[in-house]
Design a protein that fits this description.
Helix content is 42%, strand content 19%. The chain is an alpha/beta fold. It has one domain: P-loop containing nucleotide triphosphate hydrolases (Rossmann fold). The structure holds guanosine-5'-monophosphate.
């Protein structure tokens, strides 16, 4: 179907993948290779980690604030991830897309399923895969931010997340950060061309 005279809208890109797969590093590479790609800033009830800045890494909010936003339907999607509330504020994403900017969401598989259910035209679903499950477990254990209990939660969440990979349009193996980032940019560029040709 042709989009006729409709203004160009940006692509919405959903990036999921298990904890420890390297989503943040790949995201950094993506935005430095393609500065026009916008990262959505999520809200979370998780406390900030050292080095995280409010409004940049996340909007850090308390439980009551998050619940009030749910009640006002302000989230494009939200979920309980590793025991904390996390959600994508809808307005900022819609405004960026309307300006023609591509927006990337780093969200878990439950949130991705909610976005999929909304059938927004042209959304691209990408799952970042580890080279192997053994390597993923190794990377998770090397992380120093996690205590034993949250490590166990993340390991079992990681196995559950990996089982959902086939529901995504694209699976990209993070064997090398820059290679993976370039593959993702290629996927976005091809999708944009198809869209501009009037094919979704
Ligand atoms: P972290 O706590 O390490 O920053 O993030 C852990 C995971 O939470 C991310 O890998 C991502 O899958 C998920 N996440 C972050 N923001 C959101 C969000 O807004 N919505 C959902 N559904 N998941 C999120």
């Amino acid at each position: 179907m042709s989009h006729g005279d409709a203004p160009p809208t940006g692509r919405l890109v959903v990036l999921s993948g298990p904890s420890g797969v390297g989503k943040d590093t790949v995201l950094q590479a993506l935005t430095s290779l393609e500065p026009r790609l916008r990262r959505s800033v999520s809200c979370t009830t998780r406390p900030p980690r050292p080095g995280e800045t409010d409004g940049v890494s996340y909007h850090f909010v308390d439980d009551a604030t998050f619940r009030a936003m749910i009640d006002r339907d302000e989230f494009l999607e939200w979920a309980v991830v590793h025991g904390e509330l996390k959600g994508t504020p809808r307005a900022a994403v819609q405004e960026a897309l309307a300006r023609g900017e591509d927006v990337i969401l780093k969200i878990d598989v439950q949130g991705a399923a909610q976005v999929r259910g909304q059938q927004l035209p042209g959304t691209i679903f990408i799952f970042l895969m580890p080279p192997s499950l053994e390597e993923l477990q190794e990377r998770l254990r090397r992380r120093e931010t996690e205590d034993e209990a949250s490590l166990a939660v993340r390991e079992s969440d990681a196995r559950r997340e990996l089982a959902m990979a086939e529901q995504y349009d694209h699976r990209v193996v993070n064997d090398n950060v820059e290679r993976a980032a370039r593959e993702i940019l290629g996927i976005i560029a091809r999708s944009r061309r198809r869209h501009e040709d009037g094919d979704g």
